[in-house]
Structures are given as structure tokens and as C-alpha cells.
Amino acid sequence: MFKIRPLLSALVNHRQLIDRNGWKFLCTMMSEESPDQQAARLLKRENEESAERAAKRVKAEGEHTEDDKKYPKKKVVLLLAYSGKGYYGMQRNPRNSQFRTIEDDLVTALVKSGCIPENHGDDMKKMSFQRCARTDKGVSAAGQVVSLKLRLIEDIIEKINEHLPPQIRVLGLKRVTQGFNSKNNCDARTYCYMLPTVAFSPKDYDTEKTAAYRLEPETLQKANQLFALYKGTHNFHNFTSQKAPTDPSARRYITEMSCGEPFVRNSYEFAVITVRGQSFMLHQIRKMIGLVIAVIKGYAKEQVMERSWGQEKVDVPKAPGLGLVLERVHFDRYNKRFGGDGLHERLEWDREEEAIKAFKEAHIYPSIIETECEEGSMVSWMATLPIHDFEATVTETQDSKDQKQENADEGNNSD
Length: 415
Known about the structure:
This protein is α+β, with helices and mostly antiparallel strands. Helix content is 33%, strand content 21%.
């Protein structure tokens, strides 16, 4: 006589999900194992997996410990130069990796060269990372400085650069104090803006003859008189976005602003505007330049500059982003306090000056000039100046138009 096994054994390991009050419960309908045996087996598996993970972690930490013993991490600054074309600014955003930034490539190079542990790449706060100035989409730099803790491996600059594209280069490295922060310790920043001199042409000038235009000495002198008005402390709430005139952070201190002598490249005449200040807000430099151009060309009266620092909302045009370069950053107070203590170097880059100049000539200036000659971003922007109303106070309706214009300007890079 056959012994019939119970239905329980026939349906062994059959499982189904039961939805109870909105929660999913994994329900084991029938099994050969008792509940105690199942619990013991699951606990054993979990312990084995935990032990495996712990072993991997200990091994990785052991490797890092050995590297740290051989190359202890020290606080340093890196002098960085880069062409911003094709990048969405300096600052990385780990949560949005589709937009490539300068820091993305820099951190990757630091990991691959062995300067920082691999598991610190996604959280650079562990390395006390801080940039001196945030440059935005398309903006280049010849003298950016970042501070962080690094393993001081042999030939460190060469090994980092091996893993960087040609348009990004580490040009210098110096040891700094443990509490140094490149942003907080920075006293001032100097930017340059390269533009075709046709920007200063009369508003009725035939832009089809852009290559033939040459800047008159009197026009350059007038432009420099206007740029000099920016010197000192002013309320620049009209020179950025969404900043109230009562916001204390809108007050900025400018120490220098002028336009240099013109020069010819690729048959077009260019000039470089230099501006130095403690710090700058988003779009501030581009709007400072845009307003002076509007006055020079005759679209606005000189008095609009004084009005723009007042309480009312003034329509200030934003010049194209192409041509803006972070030239250098300044650490005067740090140098005065620590530069002569015999332990730390002054944060000045005289020895790197030739390398900085060579990088600009090879990567930054050619990119700006070629793009301007091919795309004509300045001439295209000049055509938008007549739509600005420099006399009236900007209304809410005009603000909406400006926002639409800024959205349309996204093709132009931002500072």
C-alpha cells in the first residue's frame, strides 16, 4: 500500500506575494523546513555576507592605510588653468552627471593618479575640497585655485596631468596651513573679458564689415572713463538675478576696471577688459560690460549708470559669456600673515607665469577668437540692444520679458 505524502510536501517552496493593507508581505505558503530552520539558514547567510563585506572593507582600508603611511595627506592648493568651452562650469554636481564640469575631470584625475582614495571621489568634503571661484558654463580660467588634502606622491603634477584632457592643466602646487580655505581666504579676484572692438562701434555701423572696424583712441578713452565709474563700493542689485536692492550682499567693492589697447587676431580687432573686485555675483561682470557698451553705442545715457546703483529696477543688458576668463585670485592677507613665517610659501605664482601665458595662448585665446569669428556672438547680441528700455523703471512685465530673454541667452555662456 502506497504511503500518501501530505499536501504540504507536494507544494514545497511554493510562494506568493499577498498585498495586505498596502504593504507587501512575502508569504511562504508551504515548506519542508520548519520556521526555526528557515530562520537559522537566513541568519547564517546574512552573517556570511556581512563577514564578506567586512573583509573587503578591511582590505580596502588596509590598502588606503598603507598609501597614507607612505604618502600622508597634506593640505595644499593647486593652480588650475582651463578652457571652459564644452563644460557646464567649474563646480561639479554628483547628482547630475550628464552635465560635464571641470571638477568632474579634475576629481577623476586625482583618483586615477592616486592622490586621493577612490572612495572619497564622490564626497570631496572628506578631502576638504574648496574652489576659490565658481566659474559658470563656458567660462575659462588661467589662475583658478582649489584647496584640498592630497597624498603628496612623487611627480604629483605630472601624474595628475596625465589623466586630464589638454584643455585642463594643473600648473602649480603649494603647501598651505591646515585651516586654509581657498574661497574664504581669497581677498580679491581678477577677471578678463576679451571682445571684438566692433562692440564699441556706433549703433548705425554696418556689422557686415566687422573685420574692418578699428577702435578710435577717443572711443577707448571714453570707455575707460565709464569703466572707472564702477570703482568703489556700489549696490549691484541690477547686475544679477533675483537680488533685492535692500539685500546687503548686493553691495560689492571694485578696485580696478579698464580696457587695454586693441590688437588684431585673424584679421579682427580685439581688446581685453580687466576687472578686479573682492567678489562678483552671477552675471555681474557681463552686465557691467553690457551697460558700458550700451552707453558708448548711444543706446543709453551715461546717467543710467548712477541710476542702476539706486533702489529702482533698471534694465541692464548682459553681454555674451564668450570671452570671460578668471585671470587670477589674490590672497594678500594670508601672504602677509603666513608668507614670511619661514614655514609656508606665499601664494603667488611668479615662477608659473610663463606656463600660464603659454596655456592662454594655446587653449584660451584661440578658442575665444575662433568661436567669435565663426559664430559672431557679440554682433548677434548687439542686435538685441534696441529692445532694452534704459529710461523707464523696469516693470513687472519687463521683468518677464527679461526672463524670457535670459532663457533665450542660454546659448550664450554665463559668467
